[in-house]
Amino acid sequence: MSGNESRLWLPFTQMRGFNPALRSFVRGRGAMLTDGAGRELFDATSSIWTILHGHCHPRIVEAIATQAARLDHATTLGASNPVAESLADRLCEVASMDRAFFAGVSDIDVFKTRFGAVTFEALTYADGRGAAQRDDVAAVIVEPSLQAAAGMRLVPAAAYAPLGDMQPLLIVDEIATGFGRTGSMFAFQRPPSCSTDAQIDAFFDALEAELAA
Fold this sequence. Notes:
The longest helix is centred in the last third of the chain and has 17 residues, at about 195-210. The radius of gyration is 21 Å and the shape is globular. The protein has helices at about 45-50, 60-70, 80-95, 110-115, 130, 195-210; strands at about 25-30, 30-35, 40, 140, 145, 155, 170. The chain is α+β, with helices and mostly antiparallel strands. It is about 30% helix and about 10% strand.
């Protein structure tokens, strides 16, 4: 390996000729990231939707440190813990749910290959009414208002209209839209009168205010 090569392979990144020294972040504060050369950059994607309240928010830093000193991690395979119980209660309250189940799968294809016996066939949601009326469909999963991984595509409310009276379960993927990112606590709670144009205007108003601060 040459001096500029990295043993760390990055997702969605062409690694041939990539020099980590030219793009390496070492600190964060609020909406800004600082690289190894001391340059500040505005984190417009909130580090892929994960830093909703800004980098290194003092209250979040304190809460993480306090919890890590008491209990850093405990399995939920047949066991519970007070923090998970509290989080489940609060999520159910704000999302009007009866139960909460914490899970994560980073690569669906790999998961289905290894655990095919406990998975199910997936269909593309192209014709909502047609797919939802099939007898063998257990649930429909959608990203509300905004399809993030598809290129930040704003979706009109009418596209979800066929899902309102269907029999299968409706699962709403709010990884990119939940917790106030589109105005309401969750995007599925937004009234139909909220237009995508209003979303765009609100975003750029907030961006201009942040850059001017």
